[in-house]
Amino acid sequence: MNMVQIEISRHDWASMWCGCRRTAEHIPHDFLAALAGPPPEDAGAGWADSHAYVQSNLMQPAVATASIAMAALADGAPVEHRHHLLAVLQVLSTGEQDDIADECLKVVQGGTWILYEEIVSGRSIVAAAYAYELLDLLEDEADRLKSVQRAARENLPTYLR
Q1: 70 near 111, Cβ under 8 Å?
Q2: Which of 55, 85, 136, 151 is most buried, with most CB under 10 Å away?
Q3: pLDDT in tens, 16-38
Q4: 3-state secondary structure of 1
Q5: How many CB atoms neighbour CB 143 within 10 A?
């Protein structure tokens, strides 16, 4: 069993209503299927967009969805999916429902070292940008983020250097 499976099992998906007007039971299956295939054109297509969020409106499964996305990053999600996972986390952490967005941001905050590693790894400049922007939402990380920004500036897009 991996971290994603453990995280999926922690949530009662059947008790949450999804943005597609069904229960959220399908989200874990759709999430795993998305990770197993090529990345979709749009971040979160088929598992988060119109399910955990609809535009900037967060739905009941938002926090649980943030948890499985962070678990996938911790578990070493394929490089081609990482920026999509981070993009979804950004939407979930900045949505219109402040209480839900704050809970999603707490999930992200629990994995700050994963985000820093994304920046310094040099795997993907797009993923590094999303990781940076998520860390920038965390006030307690301002000093460390500036240090990482200076040290790994070549791994960031020019607007974040």
Answers
A1: yes
A2: 85
A3: 999 999 999 999 999 999 999 99
A4: coil
A5: 8
- Per the CB < 8 A criterion, the answer to whether 13 and 47 are in contact is no
Report d(CA 57, CA 91) in Å as an integer: 9
Q: What is the pLDDT of residues 84-117, one digit of tens each?
A: 999 999 999 999 999 999 999 999 999 999 999 9
CA distance 97 to 113: 26
Segment holding 122, helix H or strand E: none
Confidence at residue 1, expressed as pLDDT on a 0 to 100 scale: 55
Task: Tell me phi and psi for residue 76, to 5 degrees.
Answer: 85, 45
What Cα–Cα distance (Å) separates residue 115 from each residue in 42, 53, 156? 21, 22, 13
